[in-house]
Every structure is written in C-alpha cells, then in structure tokens.
Amino acid sequence: MNKPVGYVCTAKEADKDSIFNFVEFPYKVNYVGRLDKNSQGLLLLTNDGELANAIQKSRNNHEKEYIVRINKPVTEDFINGMSNGVPILDTVTKKCIVKKVGERGFKIVLTQGLNRQIRRMCEYFGVRVVHLKRVRVMNVKLGDLKLGEYRELTSEEESKLRKNCGM
Q1: Same domain, yes or no: 50 and 22
Q2: Catalytic residues
Q3: What is the C-alpha separation between 96 and 98, in angstroms, rounded?
Q4: Is 124 helix (H, G, I), strand (E, B) or coil?
Q5: pLDDT tens across 69-111, in order?
Q6: Which of 46, 117, 127, 130 is 20 to 30 Å from 38 by CA-CA measure?
Q7: Within this chain, do residues 112 and 147 fall inside the same structural domain, yes or no?
Q8: The domain spanning residue 77 has which CATH number?
Q9: Where are the alpha helices (DSSP H) in 5-128?
Q10: pLDDT at 13 exceeding the cut of 70
Q11: Which domain holds residue 42?
Q12: Where residue 52 sits, what CATH number does that domain have?
C-alpha cells in the first residue's frame, strides 16, 4: 500500500485515521513496520504473522529505504553523522547508508526500525524532517503506486521476500 500522510498504522477501529478505515481489504491484514501519521509511502500488509515477524526483526538486518526532505541544506557533516550511528532512545542507531539528493534531500537505507527513527536522528543534528517517504522494504519497491492504492505482491516479489526471510 502507498500510505498517505494523515493516516496512522493502528488496528483500533475507533481511530478514524486508521489505514484500515481508509481502504477496504478483501481479508484481514496487519501492517509490517508502521509509518507515522506524518509519513507516507510503502507499507507492507499481510495476513502471514510469521512473515511479518521475520521482516520486522532488527537482527535480520532487512533494508528499508526512504527519501527525506529537511528544512536545512544537507551537509557532508550531516551525511557522515547520520551514516555512522546517532544516539537516540537510549541507544545508538546502527550504521546506515545515507546519500545526498538535492540541496535539502537525502536517501537513507536503514536496517532497524526504531520509533520515529529518521525524525529523531535528524532532530539530534538540529534538523527537522519536512517530508518522509518509504520507497522500499527489502526487495519490494513502491514504484508508481498512487497514494492510497494497494496491490498484491507479484509471485516473484513474494518468493524473494520469503527466501530473504529464510522461509
């Protein structure tokens, strides 16, 4: 699913902003790795709990890629700092891949999923995230899926995803 800004990843039926109130799915599904209300992009949904757990476990080092725009110019010091681990939430983030994209943008590939991780990492450097979009989870890419739309994985995507999860 391409989750729009303004919707939350929660299964609480009472929450009017839940993604599950936004789109009707043909069967009960759960999200795999949430995106916060102010973020958009690729959200994997599945009815396979074992697969969801395998994808989300930090120790498995599965990549998640984001495109981020911030309120200040991206500097080399910022890129180096973000890449080498940032102290947030009583820990230091794992090293990650960060590349500058334009004057105020960067691409980041994470292998962990701490709460509001990218936003907190940026805040550490005195920078505010203006736009955050997840574009890839492991081998599954958002591509040209329109906001609010969803699609089934191709059999090739699902096979590769399961293989990369050791299933």
Answers
A1: yes
A2: 36
A3: 6
A4: helix
A5: 999 999 999 999 999 999 999 999 999 999 999 999 999 999 9
A6: 46
A7: no
A8: 3.30.70.1560
A9: 19-22, 49-56, 76-83, 117-124
A10: no
A11: 2-58+142-164
A12: 3.30.70.580
